[in-house]
Amino acid sequence: MRRIAQKTTIRWGVILQEFKEFAVKGNVLDMAVGIIIGAAFTTIVKALVDGIMMPIVGYFLGGVDFTNIFIVLGDGEYASLAAAEEADAAVLKWGVFINAMISFIIVAWILFIIVRNMNKLKKEDVEAAPAEPAGPTQEEPLGEIRDLLAKS
């Protein structure tokens, strides 16, 4: 019984060591940083879309508030979505869906512009970097050896 416990401990030690090596690798840390920054960036983009873009879209569409577009399933008429939800009525929230679609398109467009500009910056950095001098090809040293042998 003691041998089994020792082997299990050793195996757990190996597994923990492998996990530590995996977790400390650059890719995992880069991914974690990316997720955290992505979450923070999501807050910024959501504020941009909800606070600035959607009111502009609503203004140009005649002041339509999409959130109040809904269909009541069953009996009853309600002046607003909030009133229908307060009465526990079953509703299809078409307006909420339209808002989500418009928000998605705006967010996708903003991200496209950001990624496009980042790719341009990366491309400029690569083009601006001096080219590394090419090392000798295999034929060059062999030709020099041949010439030295021919001289001797």
Description:
The protein has 152 residues and is mainly α. It has two domains: 1-61, no CATH class; 65-129, no CATH class. It has helices spanning 2-24, 26-60, 81-86, 94-128, 139-151; strands at residues 71-73, 90-92. The chain has a two-stranded antiparallel sheet.
Name the overall outline.
elongated
The first-to-last residue Cα distance is 76 Å
Please give the count of helices: 5
Structural class: mainly alpha
Total number of strands: 2
Query: What is the strand content?
Result: under 5%
What is the total number of structural domains?
2
Largest sheet report: 2 strands, antiparallel
What order do the strands of the largest sheet run in, or round the barrel if closed? Answer: 1-2
What is the H/E order?
HHEHEHH
Cα gyration radius (Å) = 32 Å
Poorly predicted spans: none
Q: In a nutshell, what does this entry contain?
A:
With 152 residues, the protein is mainly α. The protein is 74% helix and 4% strand. It has two domains: 1-61, no CATH class; 65-129, no CATH class.
